[in-house]
Batch of 2 targets.
Target 1
Amino acid sequence: MKTRLRSVLTALVIASCCTVTAGVAAQAPTPPDSAALEATVRELASELRCPVCQGLSIQDSPSELAQSMRALIREQIMAGKTPEEVRAHFVAGYGEWVLLRPRARGFNLAVYILPVLALLAGAILIVVLARRWSARTGEATAGTSAPTDDPDLAAWDELVPRN
Amino acid sequence: MNWKRGAAGFAIALAVIALLAYGLTVNPRAIPSPLPGTAAPVFALPSMEAVDTVDLRALRGSVVVLNFWASWCVPCRVEHGDLVAAAEKFQSRGVQFLGLIYQDSPRNARAFLRELGETNYPSLLDQGTRTAISYGVTGVPETFVIDQDGTVVFKQNGPITVDQLAAVIEPLLAETPQERASAAHGAGGQ
């Protein structure tokens, strides 16, 4: 009976805690929102190239222009624009140059396709060369050692093909 | 068999070298502007004296010369005289010159004008560099020419001269749009 009462009390306490937390969260929706906003701004800023730097995103650049650009991204997201619209705004002024991840079309495709092609070509080269080398080693062994008279090794001779 | 393989290897090497050679011909610092030929981004900005606001939309129908500048910018000193001279020459013919102050304080900008001579056109304050970003400005000076229809027809990075401006503005002023079209057609046919 006593333990039951205690568990009921515990449940009540937990429930009230949850309600209070929920109430606080409902009263101040800004903290989680602003975290999401900052994450969106960071993500967008790291996709855009800083025009006054060498190979830096505006997220990574401390330059004044990059700061203004980050502020502009935040402002536009807060005004309800989608990340795609914000990106389009920057592309309208600076061209596709501003995108650190080029759109996969036209000549840009080379960036996406060539590394895969090079990797494939390398893999094929390794396979072909490895086969050729092993075949050559086989030949060499075949040349130097004649089939054995040893009855214990006769079975091995049958199993391993010699070219 | 062997010469075929050699030819294939040579072709692949040549393709790779061609790609890399193309990369060498491209200037990594040059940012090609997509603006010429597109509608000029609109803005409404206060003038440095904060007496009035200039709205680009209200200037539809006249040629607009937009010059981004800053007091800390050395090439801006070089082009200052040319801009003032060009404005004197063309403002009477309905061309609106506008300065846009880029990442600078009004105080320094005023000191710059006191030192090098006042302009006969307003300079606007670009709060938060918003307008410069929408024009894809990467440094100063940069100059844009906008035609009567609100289309960017010209962009220059670096100091500009009276002659360069005249070469862009004169054709825009000389003719009505219809005449300009027929003139372009005639020039194309010759």
Target 2
Amino acid sequence: MNYSAPDILPPPSRKGRIFGRHRRFGDRIFSNLTLIFALVIVAILLGLVAILNIDAAPSISKFGLSFLGGTSWNPVTESFGALPAIYGTLLSSAIGVLIALPISLGAAIFLVEMAPSWLRGSCSFLIEMLAAIPSVIIGLWGLYVLVPFMRPVETWLGGHLGVLPIFRGQVFGVGFLTAGVILALMIIPIITAVSRDAIRAVPDHQREAMLALGATRWETIRRAVLPYCRSGLVGATILGLGRALGETMAVTMVIGNAYKLTASLFSPGATISSKIASEFSEASSGLFIASLVELALVLFGVTLLVNVVARLLVWRLTAVKAAGE
Amino acid sequence: MSGTSHLRRKWFNRLMLVLSGCGAGLAIMILGVILGYILVHGISYINLDFLTHAAKPVGEAGGGMRNEIIGSLILIGLASVLAIPVGLMAGIFLSDFASPKIAATVRFAADILAGVPSIVVGIFAYAILVRPMHSYSAVSAGIALGIIMVPIIARTAEESLRLVPNSMREAALALGITRWRAVLGVIVPGAITGIVTGVMLSVARIAGETAPLLFTALGSNFGFQGLTKPIGALPLQIYHYALSPYADWQHQAWAAAFLLLLLVLGISIVVRWVSGRRHA
């Protein structure tokens, strides 16, 4: 639980503050000092939002809303549109979540409901280690191991499921599908950890009542346990989605950096973060930089929304649990 | 209830339980494959030259990542020096001094900040430091990494400080000492394991961060030249060498990945061991 801890800490329960009132001079200085440091966090966040808005202003005023719908990205003619990057971000993240969700859910159910305690601890630990591997190392592995592996897989998919437009087109190895697979690997740990905690929070009387009715273990899980912690599971998924949306290095290394809108999952593409990572340090003109910053602003907005929703869902569950105890 | 339906339920039960087990097995297998591949592949390229020599130009054999190893350590140190005081003091504020309303605001800000993609933090550091100073610099990278560390440290510090029983606070006050001394002398030492755990987790997190370094640290062909100059770092070099067409550089990327992974996983294992002991 260590790795996901900062992501899912619920708001603490109310507790009387012993140190609340303070009269002495030194105490007032100290408590104000801690206040100042705490406000640094708020200031960083506000500063970040302000800087992004200021630096993106040239692009916002030039392109307006058409920035979000535009499909070209041409530094020479200074015409910038974000749609292919937004599409790539959403598509690769969606593939990632679709692959990661069943695996993570199965793993979480196994860890809570089935694994003997000695296995539970070591399995949880191993899965959390996956979360600790730096993104750039996953990218390195992806580039040299996963990409060659994906070529025959994609050829096979194209041969057997080619009736669907998403499985048509030339196979490169790099592309949306490979990026989605990489993202799935990276979010499995967080979805597993948070849904494991959600499932664990279901009180035992739920299970016992269902078993007493003669239900099998799976029926108990399916009808008594999972519905009880549904909001926690949805929260876990959305938290994983938030992680996938902002992921940069690994995706940049395997998505192939092409800027186009296409239905084919085999096609190389770009995400918002890969676009920024590969072009920001070379951007020369003011409008080019402003457009990249506006991309960052869009990414910030989307992840903010996703994270807030996820947190509310996870917190609601833990609040229910706290009230029940 | 008929016999066939009973049998079907039984088999469906088994099937689904096995599938769940497969999920866990698959997750662990993937981890094993990735970890094993990087460790086995990486260690074969590690040698003394890699650790003690600077990078060489394309075409020349040998060369290593001494400068990047030192650079990474400098950046981690810089980020820690900046982030630990802020995070710890904010944690103390949240657990012991804040009124509920301000606490909720700060906590919310910290959680949002923790969810900001690291590349966006990099752009922020670029805008407030690199552009005004007209140079990529170690200090801008240190601040970017520090911003990523702060919310993690603050929230874990708050949680661990809350675990210190209130009776300790009351006992300290009953001795007649001031509140700030009670905090620094009694409460923080009581929560030190959790606080250190949080700091180590945040170090493990930033040690491998690459995206915020792309346009702050930039990378450098030379050794450390001062905090206001560009600086190399292991994750940056992995990225550059991995995408290079030269086999020699790609091998060095694997070696660097091995080293970085060893550091990050080492920290995770120590954290696990320490926090496991605390709970036991």
